Amino acid sequence: MRFITKLIAVGLLPVTNAFAATATTALELQNMTCSLCSVTVKKALGNVPGVKDAEVDYGTKVATVTYDTDKTTIADLIKATTNAGFPSAPRK
Question: How many angstroms separate the CA atoms of 8 and 14, rounded?
């Protein structure tokens, strides 16, 4: 047991929070004019701490994002897409 504790302490054995709260939200995107816009939005969302997955559909202009609610918020996701040039809002 002490060996495992030491590995954790020095960072050789990663510890994850198995109870981290995750949520999935859909964001309606503006200003998407081509399929490369989807790549830009996905990259912007992927750079937000806590984002586990981001899928962007150019056809529907919707981003579906799964994220850790302890690390980020919907407001953070909206800020990321807006800063990338694609304002968004939660899908109704």
Answer: 6
